Structure formats: C-alpha cells, structure tokens
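Retry 2 of 3 after timeout on previous attempt. Resubmitting structure tokens to design endpoint.
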C-alpha cells in the first residue's frame, strides 16, 4: 500500500514535507461546488444525498491533490439527528429552534437517529472506494460546547452569549445537554470510522469565548470524554482537536484530552505553541485565510514563516480557520506548490 503522508505524520516515518489540506476545502470558492450545490433543494439535503456529498468531498482532491479529504457534511447534523429542527438560510447561516430552558433540553431525543445519519456514512464508504491511495479520509464532528452554542442560541452570534448565559444560570441543565452531546459525538465518530474515516477532527470553533474555568468544564472535559470513548474502540485512529481561539494552555489541553493533534487558529503563536507541545503530538494550521485571499508576496512570506517555525516537527499544513468563498483558485495552487516545493 502506498504511504499516506498525512498518516505518516502520526507515525515514526515523519514525511520530509508537511502534508496539506484546508478546512472547508469543499465549498463556495470552487465553481464546481457551486454547480452541484445548485442541484440540491437545501444545504442539509445536499449533505444527506450521498452522490452529491461524495462528489463535493472529491472535488478539491481532484483539483488540488490535497493529502486529506474531509467528508462533506456539517457539524449541525448532530442537533438535526437529535430531533432539533435545523435549516440553513441562504446568505445568513444556520437557524435552529432555540433551546430556551431545561424542558427543551430534556425533550431532545435520548440518542442519535442513526437512520437520519446513514447517508453520511454511505458517503464515507463511497469516497473511500474512490479516493487515491495516498489520500487520507477525515471524519469530523462539532465539539459539545460549539454544538450547544448553536442549539441554545438558535444561530451563530459573535460571542455566543446565549449559551454562556444559560450555562451560568442553570449548570445542571446545561450539563444534561453537554452529556447528551458527548454520547452523540462518540457514536457519530465511531460510525464514521467504521464507514472508512482514517482520522477524525473535533471542531470546537467557539472554545475561545469561554473564561478558563468554563473552558475546562464545557470544552476541554467533554472533548477528553469523547476522545476516551472513541479510543476505547479505535485506539490507533488519530484524533485532531481544534479548540479555536484558546489563548494558552495548549500543553494542558493535550495532556488532559489525549488528542493526537491540535489544530491552531490564526492568532496562535506557532513557535511558542510548538515549543510547549510534546514532540510526538502533531500540530496543524495556521495560515490566515485572509492572506490566502491577498496572495502575492504577503502569502509567500506567511507560508514561509509557518514552514520555518515547524521545520523538523510533526506538522500538518492548514489554515487557522475555514477557507473563505472569495479565495482565488490560483492562490490555493500557489500555496500547495510552495509547501511541497
Ligand atoms: O471542510 C469541509 O470541506 C467539509 C465540510 C464542512 C462544512 N462545515 C460544510 C459547510 C465542515 C467540516 C463544516 C464544519 C462546520 N460547520 C463548523 C466548524 C468549523 C468552523 O468553520 O468553525 C461550523 C461552526 C459549522 C456550522 C455552519 N455550517 C455554519 C455557521 C455555516 C454557515 C456559514 C457559511 O460558511 O455559510 C455552515 C454552512 C456550510 N457548511 C457551508 C459549507 C460548505 C456553506 C453552505 C453552502 O454551501 O450553501
């Protein structure tokens, strides 16, 4: 079997150049994505139609030859499969029937509706069957805290105040929600691995909105429980955690969660973070999605800085957050060329 550079980063045979993929690499910056997106009546229908999800997953691999493919889906399929209505409003983002009180949390389904999620697993099997042998397939879920922010707020907000306020007001009620999400995340990740995912990423996009004590309870501990749960069944599948926006505490986060890799956001200081993280743990990130739009000398310099500060270490080249729809294709090509060059 040909070596997979992405997986090699987690093994003893460290690749000479860092593997590369981009968060949200399937998406609106690709004309071929916009073309198939137009075929589905809604974004969730798109996610739940295996033929379309397979095609969207493979598009960035066919165009750019990234070292990893991430299954085309969304973190909000979990609230959807717990019976909370989820819809995506064109140009605005997700809308959910906000959970207003403990009764609403208790009324959620006790476990995931796996029939609803079956198309996601079917898409993983389909991608796995056609993926180039050197490409790694990544599954994912949203972390409980980030899922809870959307479930309680009913939408994304700049500071996720509704969920933060709920957690202060009713800790016990909020714990019920987090516990249910921990179980749901474990099950969803395990099913994705069974369907062919060779690594998984846990997105905690809103971890950075929490003060330290709240972060430890609502972000770090639930991620630790998920990782323990998945590792109990699949001890060798690499798990990447993305606690976006945490201002420090990387080494404690890795020690307490047991994550195999940490994805660093744009503001994280790469050399400093790398120095505080054990050598056997992989870092991922953290190019500014805006410099990828700018291109030119600014892009080259930003790429070189990341390569320089991670040389000889276990690092996966990626963005600090998802790629933006305005990103020029030529700049993505330039990025890959320079990282591999
Ligand atoms: O990375 C990939 O290519 C795989 C697919 C993927 C999507 N969403 C597809 C998507 C992944 C990994 C996600 C994760 C996700 N979804 C996160 C965590 C990462 C992050 O960006 O912080 C979050 C918070 C969500 C929830 C979500 N989904 C929001 C807030 C939005 C609206 C904002 C936006 O970009 O439009 C989405 C919609 C969404 N998810 C799109 C895509 C390609 C765009 C919708 C469309 O194409 O119509």
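Retry 2 succeeded. Sequence:
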């Amino acid at each position: 079997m040909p070596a997979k550079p992405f997986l090699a980063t987690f093994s003893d045979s460290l690749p000479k150049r860092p593997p590369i993929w981009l968060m949200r690499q399937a998406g609106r910056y690709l004309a071929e994505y916009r073309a198939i997106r137009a075929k589905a009546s809604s974004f969730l229908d798109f996610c739940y139609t295996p033929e379309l999800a397979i095609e969207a997953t493979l598009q960035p691999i066919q165009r750019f030859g990234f070292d990893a493919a991430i299954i085309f889906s969304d973190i909000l399929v979990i609230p959807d499969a717990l019976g909370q209505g989820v819809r995506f409003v064109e140009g605005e983002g997700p809308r959910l029937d906000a959970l207003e009180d403990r009764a609403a949390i208790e009324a959620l389904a006790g476990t995931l509706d796996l029939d609803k999620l079956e198309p996601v697993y079917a898409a993983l099997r389909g991608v796995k069957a056609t993926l180039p042998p050197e490409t790694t397939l990544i599954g994912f879920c949203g972390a409980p805290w980030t899922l809870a922010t959307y479930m309680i707020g009913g939408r994304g907000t700049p500071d996720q105040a509704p969920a933060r306020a709920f957690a202060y007001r009713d800790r016990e009620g909020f714990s019920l929600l987090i516990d249910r999400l921990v179980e749901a995340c474990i099950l969803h990740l395990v099913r994705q691995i069974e369907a062919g995912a060779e690594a998984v990423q846990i997105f905690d996009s809103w971890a950075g909105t929490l003060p330290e004590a709240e972060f430890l309870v609502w972000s770090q501990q639930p991620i630790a429980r998920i990782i323990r749960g998945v590792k109990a069944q699949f001890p060798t599948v690499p798990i990447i955690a993305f606690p976006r926006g945490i201002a420090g505490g990387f080494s404690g986060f890795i020690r307490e969660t047991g994550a195999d890799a940490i994805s660093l956001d744009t503001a994280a200081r790469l050399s400093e973070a790398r120095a505080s993280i054990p050598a056997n743990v992989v870092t991922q990130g953290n190019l500014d999605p805006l410099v990828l739009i700018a291109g030119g000398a600014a892009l080259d310099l930003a790429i070189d800085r990341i390569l320089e500060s991670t040389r000889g270490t276990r690092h996966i080249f990626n963005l600090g957050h998802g790629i933006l729809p305005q990103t020029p294709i030529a700049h993505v090509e330039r990025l890959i060329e320079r990282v591999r060059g």
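Attempt log closed. Residues 208 and 318 are 19 Å apart (CA to CA).
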